[in-house]
Design goal:
This protein is 71% helix and 5% strand. It has four helices and two strands, in the order H-H-H-E-E-H. A hairpin with a 2-residue loop joins strand 1 (34-35) and strand 2 (38-39). Helix 1 crosses helix 4 (44-76) and helix 3 (23-33) packs across helix 4 (44-76). The radius of gyration is 20 Å and the shape is globular. The chain starts with a helix and ends in an 8-residue tail after the last helix.
């Protein structure tokens, strides 16, 4: 019941297709609720809040990673045709 409520709050009126096409998100929400076979959280609002925090940090980490990759390649490549 709590898992379904959490999915419903996260997906805004969840249906089977939401779970099929967003398995990672559904799994992460379940991980916020159950870890190592133990139920850690039963408040659906708290579960969704923790998931959103995790999602924000993952996006920030991805953004920082892409900035590092972009910065490393542009510094070593000279775009000027007069370099030769």
């Amino acid at each position: 019941q709590v898992y379904v409520e959490s999915l419903d709050k996260s997906f805004e009126n969840v249906c089977e297709l939401d779970i099929i096409f967003n398995q990672q998100k559904a799994g992460l929400i379940l991980d916020q609720m159950i870890t190592g076979g133990l139920v850690l959280e039963t408040n659906s609002q708290e579960i969704v809040t923790k998931y959103k925090e995790l999602e924000r940090s993952m996006k920030q980490q991805e953004k920082e990673s892409s900035n590092k990759n972009a910065g490393g390649t542009t510094g070593s490549y000279n775009k000027s045709p007069r370099a030769f």
